[in-house]
Every structure is written in structure tokens, then in C-alpha cells.
Amino acid sequence: MRLESRGASRSGRPPGGVTMPIFESRKARAKEVKIAEWKQSSANVLATLKIPHDAIAKLERELEGTLAVPGDAAYKADEKNWNPAFPEKPALIAFCQVALDVRHCLEFANTWSLQFVCRSGGHSTAGFCLATGALVVDVSQINDVHIDAGARRATVGAGTSFGKLNHVLDLYGLHVPGGGCPEVCVGGYMQGGGYGFTSRMFGINCDNVLQVDVMLADGTIVTANAAQNQDLFWAVRGGTGNNFGVLLTVTYQLYPLGDIWAFGVSWPIDNAPEGLHYLQQHYMKSNWSRLLGYQGVLGVDKGAQKLLARGMVRGDAQAGRAEIAGMLGDGGGTLELEGIGSYLHWNIALLDNIPDIPGPPKGEVLKENKFSTYIGRVLEVSEWRRVVDYFNTASNPACTVGMEIYGGAINTYPAMGNAFVHRDVYMDFFVDTFWYTQAQEGPARAWLKGFRELMETYWNGHSYQNYPRRDDPNYRWQFWAEAFNSLLFVKQKYDPTNFFTFPQAVSPIPPDAPRGVQRATAPSMFSDPVIVYR
Ligand SMILES: Cc1cc2nc3c(=O)[nH]c(=O)nc-3n(C[C@H](O)[C@H](O)[C@H](O)COP(=O)(O)OP(=O)(O)OC[C@H]3O[C@@H](n4cnc5c(N)ncnc54)[C@H](O)[C@@H]3O)c2cc1C
Questions:
Q1: How close is the Cα of 341 to the center of ligand 1, in Å?
Q2: 239 in ligand 1 pocket by Cβ < 6 Å?
Q3: Counting atoms of ligand 1 from 1, which one is nearest the CA of 466?
Q4: Cα–Cα distance for residue pair 197/12, rounded to 1 Å
Q5: What is the set of domains in the chain, with CATH numbers?
Q6: Does ligand 1 lie within 6 Å of residue 158's CB atom?
Q7: Does residue 400 have its Cβ closer than 6 Å to ligand 1?
Q8: So what's the ipTM on this one?
Q9: What is the DSSP string of 107-130?
Q10: Alpha-carbon gap, residue 287 to 28, rounded angstroms
Q11: pLDDT tens readout for residues 10-58
Q12: How far is the CA of 241 from the centre of ligand 1 (A)?
């Protein structure tokens, strides 16, 4: 027996007169209405895609999740990148809810020769989670979190946001290092490394991964861990997303973490060079403690430019003050903020509203550009002064320098233990510039370019792959150095048809690469061509 669906037309039938089986769900009915609407309202758009309506309808019916096509409200709401500086127009966006949805999307992209772009949290700073003409496969609803408190393990969907994960973990008093933004998801963050306040204590996020499940381009799922598919296990931890397959789940090692002591230390901008030199000597690679994690900022706080150190100590106020006594004594900093509480609270509160970004003019949205450089030596005070002086020329008050402080557990992890290779450094020094209007864009970009040129004097030649820039042909060397050939082996083994690709994919250096593009000379650590399937 079939019933007419509750359509929108006067005849009581949806456009196209679709009938529905009696046991079909409301979800299926809504899909049929949408499919019928596509035939009419989006006809031109679908024709441009050169994909027949029937094929798109079939995919929509197959998915437990849903599709959005250009013209849909869901598409309009979603095509926007987190950073609107990179506008893209995907052909279709698929919101997957289960792994089978991803498999259907892989088949569809293969059949219709569409570029396939995974997206978890959509926070790629270079906009790599969207591409014009692509099928964007959004896995943000594949976000189950399962905690095994006894074993101190969490198995999470790749679309799990750190806001959700931290809320779940807080209940158990357990922890894995995560970033500052609650909307960033495991899928992109972990595959690029993943730095946070507690990384000096417990390592980079990807150092704490025990196992991953990845769907390859042919729809098969492989499990990778220290005993099986070790090469893939090595590569997904730092090798960046959209390279090997679709990351479905990640299993983390967790750590007990009770209340922490949070602090903020500041220096007037004029004293920032001395402060930075002191911090480098005493609070980064040397004299490190696994109790302390912190980040540095050059930015505007409460109307004044400052150097800020914001961080947390595992312990009470007494232990905390003891940890940072040097910063306040010989280091010359002033304690301006302290408190006891959960990581969940302080991870957000510590950097909230820094910098003071002014609100948008009517109709404008904030756009951002940035670069990252690793600092591999202690800079002299005079060198830091040049850096701070340049910072002071910022074209608008929203421009910021962020310093992700390394040392501790990050640097003691084996250099080639995974594809995140930045282990012998003091900090990731990154610069953000923001703008609202077109008039502000030119000066903001010019300032960033000048800053980058200055930092090329001081950096170690590498940069953090979670803060990519589109215009960097030397990204292979900057992100992976001598690990690149190992990564390329893994890429070609697990994705032999180069199905997963984007502008900074793991790929051979092209013959026409510009001069200055550096080549890794170390051969691949891996050579076994066999993939183990479960
Ligand atoms: C506001 C903000 C704050 C940030 N804070 C921090 C921080 O504190 N520490 C830090 O280390 N980084 C930080 N980052 C950088 C962040 O880690 C990266 O941008 C990260 O890639 C974002 O993860 P995502 O899930 O949002 O990725 P997306 O933008 O969805 O994707 C990033 C890349 O990974 C691919 N990808 C995504 N999901 C999958 C998947 N399931 N399978 C295969 N490939 C996939 C995408 O195709 C894309 O190439 C921040 C970024 C922003 C915008």
C-alpha cells in the first residue's frame, strides 16, 4: 500500500506527484519533497553540474544524512567557510551521519568525476575544507563519543568537536590535549598535529592517538594502529587531512586531570623583547616542567599593546605560583590573572577576547590571513626588538602574534614517531591579520607579508601544517622536512589513484616547481605494499 506524501502543492501532491510507502519515515518524505523541488527550482543549477537529477535523487535517498544543492537554504547557510577570505562554490554538500553515507559519496564522486573534499569542523585556515565544483563530504554528524573510563580511552567520530569532547571528558575527570576553539573538530585538527595548553604536559594531540579507522577511496575501511597498517598510523598523525582516506574514528589515550591553576602574566610592549628572551631561555626547551603549559600573545588587551603569557599548571595555586616564579621575578612579568577551575572552563577563558577585535561595520564579516614559523634558536633581545617593532606597525588593532610554546612532552616524543616532525623547536610563532572591508585588506595583507619576510631571518624553515597558507609552494618541506618521502609512500600506497587531493596534498614535487622549493633526501621508512583489511 502506498500513500501520497504530504507535499506542498494544491492538489495535495508534492511537485512531481510522488507517492510514498506507508511505513516511510518523515525523513524519507521530506527527502522526496526536496527531490521534487530540486527538479523545478534548481533545474538550472543541476544542469550546470552536468549530473542528472535522477543521480542526485538516488544519492539523497541512499544517505541517512542529507544533500544540499546550490539554491537550497542549507547550501547557502553552509557554503560559507569559517574564513570568508576563501569563497568557494561546491557542487554539492553531503551531510553524512554514518560511514555508509561516506561510502555512497565516494561512489558518487567516482561516477561523476567530482573532486571529493572531506570536512569535519570546517576551520581550515586556508579554506581547504571547501572547493569550487567539488562534492564536500561533511562528517560533522559522525561525532559519537565513547569513553572507556577504566582503560582511560575515548573513541570518537572524526566530526566530534572539541567543545563536545571536552564537555564529555570533564564528567570523567579525563583529558586529551585539544585546541582553543570549541568548534574545531578532531578530523582536521588531529591529522595536522593539534596543539593546546596541555601539549607540553601530554604531547601534541596526535601523539595520543592509539588507533584510527579510515575509509579508503574504494569504500573499504582500514584500521591502523601500532600493530596493523603502521605506515598509515604514522602518516595520519601529522600528514594532514584529505590525503589518505576519510578519517572515521579516532581512539585516544586519556589522562586524569583535575582542577588546574590558570594564570595570566603580562609585560608592557616596550619590555616584550626582554620578556621573550627570558621566556625562551627559562620556560621553553630548558628547565621545562610537565606541570606547566602556556601560550604567548602580542596583542591589544584592554586597550594597550602587551606581551601576554596565558597558561595553566597542574596543581594548586601554591604549586602554580612556584612554577612561574621566574617569569614574575627575573623575567619581569606581572601576574594579572589567576584562578582555580576546570580545564573545560579555563581553556576558553584564558584567551577569550584576546585580541580586542572591534565589531564589524554593517554588512561586513571578519576575514583572516596568517602564517606560521617555527623558532629553533634563542633570539637575542635585539632580534626580538625588531620583531616587536614590526608588530607595532600593525595596520589595525586586531593584528596579533600568537606563540604556541613547545618543550616538555612535545619535544621528547621521537622525531619520526609520527608525521608531526616539529620536535626540536622553542615555539610556533604565528601571525594573524584580520580585516573587514576591502579598503583594509590591502594594508593588512602587506603588513603580513612584511612580517613573514622579517621572520624568514629567524625561523628554522618550517611551519605548522594546521596553519597552512595557500601561496606556499614549499609546503612539503615546511610541514614535513625529511619525513616527506615516507609520507609520499603512504599516500601512494593507500590512495593509488590520487582520489583525495587539494592544493597542498601529499604529492610529488611537480617538475615546474619554482626555484627554492626544497626536496627531502631521506628515503621512505616504509616499503611494505600490503594493506591489512579488517
Ligand atoms: C578559530 C580557530 C582556532 C584554532 N585553534 C587551534 C589551536 O588551538 N591549536 C591548533 O593546533 N590548531 C588550531 N586551529 C587550526 C585547526 O587545528 C585546523 O584548522 C584544523 O584543520 C581544523 O580542523 P577541522 O576539523 O575544523 O578541519 P576542516 O576545516 O574540516 O578540515 C581541515 C582539513 O582536513 C581535511 N579533513 C577534515 N576532516 C577530515 C576527515 N574526516 N577525513 C579526512 N580528511 C579530513 C579537510 O579536507 C581539510 O583539508 C584553529 C583554527 C581556527 C580557525
A1: 27
A2: no
A3: 18
A4: 58
A5: 26-138 (3.30.43.10), 145-256 (3.30.465.10), 260-455 (3.40.462.20)
A6: yes
A7: no
A8: 0.99
A9: HHHHHTT--EEEESS---TT-TT-
A10: 61
A11: 333 444 455 556 666 888 999 999 999 888 776 667 777 788 889 999 9
A12: 8
